[in-house]
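Late entry, written up from scratch paper. The run itself happened at the end of the previous shift, but nothing got recorded in the book at the time, so transcribing now.
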Amino acid sequence: MARLVTRDFLEASFTGFRALFERSFSTADPLYAKLATVVDSSNARESWNWLGAVPGMREWTDERVPGALRTNDYEIANRRFESSIEVDRETFEDDRLAQLKPRIEELALRAAAHPDELVLGLLDSGFSESCYDGKPFFADDHEQGESSPQSNKLADKLDATSLRLAVETMMLFRDDQGKPFGLLPDTLLVGPDNYFTARELLNSTGIVVSGGTDVEKPDGNSLSGMLNLQVSPWVTADHWYVLATQYPVRPLLFQWRIRPEFSAVTRPDDEYVFASDAYRFGVRSRCGAGYGLWQMAVGSDGSV
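Output as recorded:
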């Protein structure tokens, strides 16, 4: 026997689905929040012109000497996103709502993971897309103020030698006043293709090296436990990144203008419902992602 689908029933169903969406969204554990500085946005675009080095401490012998933050012209636009599903009215009439709940939960998980796609996509685009200093995020010639040209770009495949080089490279970066940044990387980010190589590099007590007679032998692993390993399907094959994520400004930026909102078209007298004999459920958000400090990242495209 078909259920009588009233307006009150539809409203109660929507309330339950929205609670399910919000609960599933809140329990997700996306990666972007670990890699990017996340802020709330109040405009269509946000200016990040203040990116650069903060003056170091100096001896105060007469008057303060404020150091002007070097300005740039870097903005991040908020874009609009959505994901929707359509459900036949018979699903409600025949009391098959239990079949709809997993789809609502999946909507929530997709919405929660969407920033990962945006943020991690920036890393793979970083070999050509510009950051705040006008150079590609991963470049051989970052230079600002009193720093000499510096590179945060590698081309080596992931192994013990290249990973050590990436760590050392970041530790030697200098700010725009020519002083050491004093950075210590904490994260190695890879795609599925490099996952097991990365695990061996970071978790093994020894690594295999080539001896003087070309005979492979185990050697102590100075990389063991040094970096946190993160893996994501959004990282392109052969690409890998060493990141510093424990500082106030991280290598990537993410801004929420409107966090994902769950909505529905379920009124029986709605034109769409009348024409299609179906209801719609969906999620909408507005957000943007961009580059933070290039000094917080060393990236390799694994091309050699």
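The chain has a mean pLDDT of 87.
(Scratch paper discarded after transcription.)
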